[in-house]
Design brief:
about 110 residues; NE0471 N-terminal domain-like; 3-stranded antiparallel β-sheet; 4 helices; about 20% helix; globular
C-alpha cells in the first residue's frame, strides 16, 4: 500500500507511556511518548537535535517532570498536532513521519 493511501483507523493511549495507532493496512504502530517528543519534527526541535549536547546545561524545574501529551488533534487528513504538558505544540506529525518512526517489534527490526 502506498504511503499516501495509509490512514489511521484508530488512535489510543495504552497505559501511561504509550500511543497505539492502528492503520488501514492492518499495521499496529507503537510509540512511547518520550520517543514522540524526541522525534518532534518542528524546526526548533530539529535544530536542537543537530547541536552537540551542552554538558553544562542546567535543567529547569519543569524539565524534571515527565512530559505527557495534553491533546492530540488531527490536522486535515495528513498530520496530528500534539500539545505537550510543557506547552510545546509546534510540531506537526505527518502520517508518513509517524509510520517511519514506529517502534513496534516488526519495525524495530528493520
Amino acid at each position: 500500500m502506498a504511503v499516501s493511501t495509509l490512514r489511521p483507523v484508530a488512535l489510543k493511549k495504552e497505559g501511561e507511556d504509550r500511543l497505539i495507532i492502528e492503520w488501514n493496512d492492518g499495521h499496529r504502530s507503537e510509540y512511547l511518548w518520550t520517543h514522540l517528543r524526541v522525534q518532534c519534527p518542528c524546526a526548533g526541535c530539529r535544530e536542537e537535535r543537530e547541536q552537540p549536547p551542552d554538558p553544562f546545561r542546567i535543567l529547569k524545574p519543569g524539565e524534571l517532570v515527565p512530559l505527557k501529551p495534553v491533546s492530540i488533534s488531527p490536522i486535515g487528513h495528513y498530520a496530528y498536532k500534539i500539545v505537550w504538558s510543557d506547552g510545546h505544540d509546534s510540531g506537526l506529525f505527518t502520517l508518513e513521519h509517524l509510520r517511519r518512526i514506529c517502534q513496534c517489534p516488526q519495525c524495530s527490526k528493520q
